[in-house]
Amino acid sequence: MFKRPSFRSFCKTVCAGFCTALVVLAAIRIAAGQDAGPPKLHTNEAYVEEVTQATSLAADDPMAVFAFVLNSLPDRVKVYPTENYYYFTFIQRGVPYAGNIRIELGDGGKVTVHFVYYQDWSEWRPDSPLTHVVLDGSRGVDVEKLDRLVYRLSYGGKSVVFALNDLSQVKPPGGALAPGETFIGPIFDESAIRFFLVYNSKLKVFHYILDETVNVADEFFPTRRSARILIGKRTGFAFYRDHHLNRKILVGVYESNYRLNTYFDGPFDQLPDNFIAGETLRQAILEVSPGLKGKIDRFGSSPSGEVRYLIKPYALYRTESDLYGVDKCARARVRAASYYGCFEAEPADEDLGAPRTSARKNGKR
After folding, report:
1. What torsion, rounded to 10 degrees, do the Cα atoms 68, 72, 73, 79 define?
2. How confident is the model at residue 351 (pLDDT cuts 50, 70, 90)?
3. Among the four residues 20, 99, 288, 350, which has the most C-beta atoms within 10 Å?
């Protein structure tokens, strides 16, 4: 399976609803070990004043919007998601907008900076068009590398340092991998949840394993019919407690979050690009889909960069009952060699034309 077209791959909703976005941002800071102490209070008063404020931003001018975003940031920011997206929202004349700045790192030191924004999506209105521009010298934007994973963007007299998330030393703990599994890399999802991306060469399946070496920014509750299926109260992520190892495997994402492209759509769009060793990912993909040989780079992207291989083994669910099949399969195969195949909801295909997307009709990021 492949990701969505690349210009859409730079556009992602921070969350359905501006207030929810604020809560998620606070959770990310807490997960990163910042802002120790009492929680941050958000009030309806502040929300009402923001949505009713008279504003004059030229929302149809991408460089005016970029200048507004850049000037609103402090001199240094931290980019937590591992595909290097810095997400933002704002409200203009009562309408919520979402967008991101992405620092895309390629082979040979190539750096491409993308800027995307759009009117945020919701259940009750169609998708809005995206505005996407590449930020470089032709638009008066200076991009400077200061250090490994540290870049400075300057425009119109304002400079901001973007520090990318360095997880190069993050590894799964001993005993966290099953026989035949290879660790591809660490993931920091925009939901503030961390994962280990692993590949099972025996069964030719990928898994997202919950990283519990750090405090997990969520609380989990068991489903009514199976205590092995745990669902996050904040994220809606559903995990399965492995019968054989002390770990939790991501098996489900709430369907509307995936379709609406929220922070909680799952980690398929935050692969560990900065930490993939050599050909590890491409080799794994070609084992699953050998027909893609010569058609993808080491990140799983097509030569044009317009589509990218979709790694989404987890299911989409609306009710707990949608997840019970995983438990039924796992209990039936608990001693079988095919046990870990129970945690692949969508077998991969080799269709280069299918973009990586959170909903087939919607682009995102």
Report:
1. -60
2. low
3. 99
